[in-house]
Amino acid sequence: MKLLSIAIPCYNSENYMRKCIESLLVGGEDVEILIVDDGSTKDKTAEIADEYAQNYPTIVKAIHKENGGHGSAVNTGIENASGLYFKVVDSDDWVKKDAYLQILSKLRELVAGSETVDMFISNYVYEKEGEKNKKIIEYRHILPTDKVFSWGDSHYFSKGHYILMHSVIFRTMLLKDMKLRLPEHTFYVDNLYVFEPLPYVKKMYYLDVNFYRYFIGREDQSVNERVMIGRIDQQLLVNRRMIDYFVNQRDMITADKHLYKYMRNYLEIITTISSVLAIRSGTDENLEKKKELWNYLKKKDYKLYMWMRKGIMGSFMNLPGKGGRSITVNAYKVCQKIFKFN
């Protein structure tokens, strides 16, 4: 059995997927690389996937499927994963060799030990186009290092320091046993990927290394603000599903106050992003969708709605009139500069 399965969702990715794959091949026979060709039609993604599978038959597996979107490709990766642990690496991103080898070494050590780790966490780096100073997201002041720990051992997560898809490696059977299934033909499902498994995560390990290199800056990239506004319905769909999950799994989540606070705060951040995008669009239609989102939350969980609505971010997101929306946008631009997103 492989130590780590890595899924690479690919859709018309020929211009950058080789860099991603080559960075992962360094892991050798401990790693299973699943190149998921999500119905690519415009380029040689499928051929490149087959080429690597032929050249590295004991490491790489090429999987070809009908187009279903990023979530569908991740689902396919989980279904086909045979490794003890599972990670997603997007085809335009890559990993750092030294940190990669350190992570594999630590995973081997943990597997041989007496405690089962459900989630392994490391740092990621924003490789933003045109910027020399790279923003590093690290957790050394939030999570214990060099030990297996639980939610109760973690400290407060400040804004901009949440655990994203780039940070995590999950135990494969945890994802399979909980039957994680991301929605198809939908962007921004990575938020669900790092949200829904959390109530099942009991033991964690954090290795303070800068592992994942998150490329950001292409005009057509899903996290480009203009693109996100154009796909606001998908952002809202994900947001509503997160609200549903938080409410429906309340008993599991509230069993641990640290987990509850973390998931509640993460949901607040996603709701803030949805609201800002609606405001930034400047259309009456999207402003109405923002209102509908907050009403949806209100109906689902009035107490949660009031906590979020009366908080700093909720207050900023719901300032009245054009002047209020202008203040919200200016505050958002400041956050962009601080946290380096979009």
Descriptive tags:
17% strand; 2 domains; globular; alpha/beta; single chain; 342 residues
Describe, in plain words, how this protein is organized in 3D:
By secondary structure, this protein is an alpha/beta fold. The chain folds into two domains: 213 residues, Spore Coat Polysaccharide Biosynthesis Protein SpsA, Chain A; 115 residues. Helix content is 47%, strand content 17%. The radius of gyration is 20 Å and the shape is globular. The two termini are 39 Å apart.
Strand and helix map with partners:
Layout: E1 4-10, H1 17-25, E2 31-38, H2 45-55, E3 60-65, H3 70-80, E4 85-88, E5 94-95, H4 97-112, E6 119-128, E7 135-137, E8 148-149, E9 168-171, H5 172-177, H6 190-193, E10 204-216, H7 225-230, H8 232-248, H9 250-254, H10 257-281, H11 284-300, H12 302-310, H13 312-317, H14 321-339
Parallel strand pairs: 1-2, 1-4, 2-3, 6-10
Antiparallel strand pairs: 4-9, 5-10, 6-7, 6-9, 8-10
Largest sheet data: 10 strands, mixed
Proportion of beta-strand residues: 15-25%
Low-confidence stretches: 338-342
Query: Secondary-structure element order, as H and E?
Result: EHEHEHEEHEEEEHHEHHHHHHHH
Category by helix and strand content:
alpha/beta
- CATH T-level topology of the largest domain: Spore Coat Polysaccharide Biosynthesis Protein SpsA, Chain A
Name the CATH class of the largest domain: Alpha Beta
Helix fraction bin:
40-55%
SS summary, helix count: 14
The structural domain count equals 2
Would you report the number of β strands?
10
